[in-house]
Amino acid sequence: MSTLDHHQILVLLLALATLLGGARILGEIARRLGQPSVLGEILAGVLLGPTVLGWIAPAANEFLFPQIGANALVMHGLGTFAVVLFLLVAGMEVDLSTIVRLRRSAAIIGCLSWLMPFVIGAGLAFSVPVAMGREPDADTLTFTLFFGVAMSISALPVIAKTLMDLNLYRTDLGMMVIATAIFLDLIGWTIFAIVLGLMNPSSANATSIAATIGMALGFAVLMLSLGRWAFHRSLPWVQANTSWPAGVLAYALTIALLAAAATEAIGIHAIFGAFLAGVALGDSPHMREKARRVLEQFVASVFAPLFFASIGLRVNFVTHFDPALIAVVLGVACLGQIIGGSYGARLAGFPPRHALAIGFALNARGAMEIVLATLAMQAGLISERLFVALVVMALVTSMLAGPAMQRILRRRKPSRLIDALSGKMFVTNLRGATAEAVIRELVTTGAKASEKLSADDANRAVLQREHIMPTGLAHGIAIPHGRLRGLDRPIVIVGMARRGVDFRAHDGQASQLIFLVLTPENAAETQLELLADIARTFGERGVSKAALDCQSFTEFVAILNTGSAPQAARVATRVVTAPP
Amino acid sequence: MSTLDHHQILVLLLALATLLGGARILGEIARRLGQPSVLGEILAGVLLGPTVLGWIAPAANEFLFPQIGANALVMHGLGTFAVVLFLLVAGMEVDLSTIVRLRRSAAIIGCLSWLMPFVIGAGLAFSVPVAMGREPDADTLTFTLFFGVAMSISALPVIAKTLMDLNLYRTDLGMMVIATAIFLDLIGWTIFAIVLGLMNPSSANATSIAATIGMALGFAVLMLSLGRWAFHRSLPWVQANTSWPAGVLAYALTIALLAAAATEAIGIHAIFGAFLAGVALGDSPHMREKARRVLEQFVASVFAPLFFASIGLRVNFVTHFDPALIAVVLGVACLGQIIGGSYGARLAGFPPRHALAIGFALNARGAMEIVLATLAMQAGLISERLFVALVVMALVTSMLAGPAMQRILRRRKPSRLIDALSGKMFVTNLRGATAEAVIRELVTTGAKASEKLSADDANRAVLQREHIMPTGLAHGIAIPHGRLRGLDRPIVIVGMARRGVDFRAHDGQASQLIFLVLTPENAAETQLELLADIARTFGERGVSKAALDCQSFTEFVAILNTGSAPQAARVATRVVTAPP
After folding, report:
1. B431 is in which domain, residue-wise?
2. What is the ipTM of this complex?
3. Quick check: is B286 catalytic?
4. Are B530 and B468 in contact (CB under 8 A)?
5. A1: in domain
6. Looking at the whole model, is its pTM more than 0.90?
C-alpha cells in the first residue's frame, strides 16, 4: 500500500503549519490595515513560494513545498478538498429568494454590469489573444469566453462583507447589490462551466462539446429544482433524527462531494457541483444557522487560508508581473463593471450617487476571480502573466469597493468601543467612593495619556451631563459621558471599582464597571453608537462579571473581541478530598 | 509539478463522499442502538473495504480505494491531518487541574488500574509473543511494552461521554474517573512514545534509543511547562487582537501541527505532539468555549468519521478474525482493568459498588486504542490478527461501560421529551376553546395511538391535577400532566391551539402550545425530568414561536434535536419594489 514515509509526513506537517500560520499572520495584518484578509493570505504564499523564499533560500522552498512527488500530490488533494468546501460555503450564501423578489431591477442591473465588461473583455481577448495572455496551445474562442467571464464575475462573499461593514446590508441598495451579485455569479459560473466543457480533452468534436455543455446545464437545472426540493424536504428529517450538528454537517458535505464528483465526471470542474450543492442546500429555511456557522467558521479559518496561501505558491509573482497587462486588465474590469453597473442602476431607478456606489460594489472580484484564474491556469488556458494580472485585479477591485462606497455615500463605519480603547486608559482599581471622585480619577488618567484632553473640561462636561440624568445601568455598569470641543476622535476610559460606586442605577445596584465616554462635540452619532455598543456587549450578566475579573487590558479586549467570557472552570469547583 | 489528474480527483471526491456518508449513516444507526458511533464508523470502512466490498465487488473496491498510487497517498495525507486534529481535540479535553486536585486518590486508582493490565498483558506478550500477534521481524521487548500499553490505555472522550449520559460527570465518582483516565492517558502515551522511539529505524543502538526517549520526555515536559505557560500568556493577546474565531483556531492548529512535526522529527509519532499541544492549550482558562466547540464539532463531524472509516478499509476483518486471540485480549484487558481499577478505588476509599463502577468506566478503550493499534500495525510491530483483536476489544469495552455502570449504580438516563413523543400523538390544530376541551382532545388522540392508554382514566388524572394548580407557563406554553396506573413508559401528547386556550398562566397569556405529559404511577422522577425538559427547551421565546410554525412532526422534532429554531429569512422580509 502506498503510504507517506516518515520524511514526507514531517514535510507535510511543516508545510501545513507554515502555510496556515503565515496566512493567518499576514491576513491579520491586512485586516488591520483595512484590507481584505485574502490579500494577506495570498501574500503568505508569495513569501513562502518561488517569488521570495524560492529566490532567497531555494533549498528551504524545495524542502517545504516540493514541486514533484508525494507531497505535491497530497497538497493538491488537500487543496481540492479545501476549494470544494469553500465553494460549498460560498454557494450557501446565495439566497435565491432575494433574486426572485428583486428580479426585475436585478435583471436590468445584472445584464448591464455583466454585458459591459464581458463584451469589452471578450472583444479584446479575441482581437489580441496572445498579448492578453492566452497559452500558445489554447483555443482562441475558449480563451475569449473565459476572458469575458473573468472580467464580469462578481464575488458575493466580499461584497456581502463590505455591505455589512458599512451597515448597508439590509437596505434597499444593499439587497439590490446582493441580488445582482447572485445573478452575476450564476451566469458567470455557468459560462465558466461551458468554458471548461470546451477544454475537456475527451470532447474533441462539436457533438461531444455540446453533450458536455448540455449535461452541465442539465445538472445545474436538476440541482436547483429537483435537488433543491429533495434537500429541503429531507433536511428537517436529518435534523430531527441524527446527532446534532454532526448529522447535518456530514449530510451537507456528502452532497457537496457527490455533486463535485458529478460535475468532475461530466468534464467540468468539481467546484461547479460544490457551488450548486451549496446554493440548493443553503437557501432552505430549515438549514440551521448554527450548523452553517460551524462549517463556515472552520472553512474560513482553516481551509480558505490554506487554499489562498497555496495560490501564492504556484507562480513567481515577480518574474510574471507584467505592468502593461495588469493595467489593461484592471482598466477593462473596472471601467466595464463600474459603468455597466452604475448605468444599469440608473435605468432601474436609483439616484446617481447610489447608482455609482452599486457599480463600485459589484466591481469587487475577490476570491471568486482567484479561483477562476487558478483553474484556468491549471487547465493550460492562460499564461502565468495573465494569472498574476487577474489575481492583482481581484485584489485591487476588492480593496477599492469599501473605501469608494464609503466616500460616494458619505457613509462611515459605526464607531465601536474596541477602537476607542487604549491600554493607557484602563484603570483596574478606582479608589473613589462617589461618582464625582471616580469621574475625576478617570478624566485624570485620560488627560495623562492624551494631550488633546483637558481633565478640567472633560470633568465639567461629564458632571454636567451626569446631573441632568444619572448614567448607571443594570448589572453594575455605568456610562458617564460628555462631548468635548477639541477632541478629534472618541475616547473611552475604562475603570473598575470593585467595591461599587453609586451611579443611581434604576436597579439600585452600585456600579463596578465604569466607562467614561468622551466624544468630539459635533459627533452626536458617534456617542450614540458607542453607548449602544457598551450597553449591548455588557448587558449580558456573564460578560460584565468576567470583565471585572480581568487582570489585564489584553484580557479585557479579548472579551470584547470574542463577545464571550473566558470558559468557566470546566470541572466542579468544590474541592473533593474524601470520596463518598 | 505533480498534480492529480482528472480521474484521480474524481476518485478522491467519490471516496471521501462514500466514506463520510457511510460512516455517518452507520454511526447514526449505532447511536440509535445505544452504541458508540465510532462502532458504526469503523463498520462503514469494513463494508467499503477489503472485508465486504472487496469480496463482493473487488473492482469497485479497487476503483474507490486503490491501494497504490496517488490516491492512496492523498488518503494517507488526509488521514494524517485528521488524526492530528483528532488528537488535538482529545488533548484539549484533558484538564490538568482536575488531576492535580484529586492527585492522591487518582494516583492510587491510576497506578493499580494501569499496573494490573499492563503487567498481565506484558507478561503474556513476553512469554508467547508470536501467538499474541507479534510481527516476525519485530523486537520482543518493544512488542511487550506495546502490548502492556495497549491493555492499560484509557479513552477519555468515550468515558466523559458515558459519564455525561448518566448524569455522573460532575459527581465525585465522575471527577475521580476523569482524573484517573487523564493519568492513564498521560502514562500510556508516554510509554507508547518510548515504544515508537525503540522502533525508530535510525536508532540502531542503545545510545540513540536513549536519546530518542530523552528527547520525547524532554519535549513533553517542555510543552507542559514552558509551552503551556507561553500559550496561556499569549492566548488573551490572540483573542484580543485577531479576527474571531479564525485567529485563535489558526493559532491552535498551527501550534498543533508544529508540535506534531517536532515529535515526528524526534522519531516518535506526530500524534504525540498534537496531543500534548492540545493538553497545553486546552486547559487554559482563557481558551474560549466557542472556539473549542467549532473545532470540536467540525473534527467530530468530518475528520473523525473519515479517520475511523479508513481504519476499516485497512484490513480484512473476516480473514484476520481470530476468536481465540480476541478472547485472550478481551479477557486480559477487562480483567486487568476492572479488577485493578476497582481495587484501587476501594483503597482510595470508595464503597464496593462505586469502586466496581469506576473499574468498568476505566475499562472503556474507545478511539484511543484504535489509534494506537493502527500506528503499531503501520509500523510493522503487530500482525493484522492482533490489530483486529485490539479493535474488537476497544469496541466491546466501550460498549460495556455504559450499561454496566447503569446497572451497578442503578442509574438510568434522565427521561427526555424527544423520546416520549410520537408522530401519532401530535395534533397541529386543537379545536377546543377551554382547557378541559383541549385536554379531552389530547387524551383521545393518545388513546387512539396507544392501547395502554385509557382516555377516561387519563382525562380524570389530568383534570384532577389541573384543578389543584393550573399548568400554564409563560410564553404561551401549558403542561397539563398526570400519573397513570398501567402505563409502562412516559407518553407526551403535543397539541397546538393557535387561537390560544386559557390555562391560567401567571403572565395572563393564553396557551398555544400544549404538552400533555402522562407518566407511570410510580415514576415521580420521570415526570419531573420531562416537565423540566419541556420548560427548559420552550422557555426561549424564539423556540416556542418556531414550534408553532411547524408544519409537520418532523420539523417539530428537528427543533427539539437541534435546540434551535430554523433560520430566520436571511433577508429583510419587506418587499422592495421601487428603489429609493
Report:
1. 417-562
2. 0.87
3. no
4. no
5. no
6. no
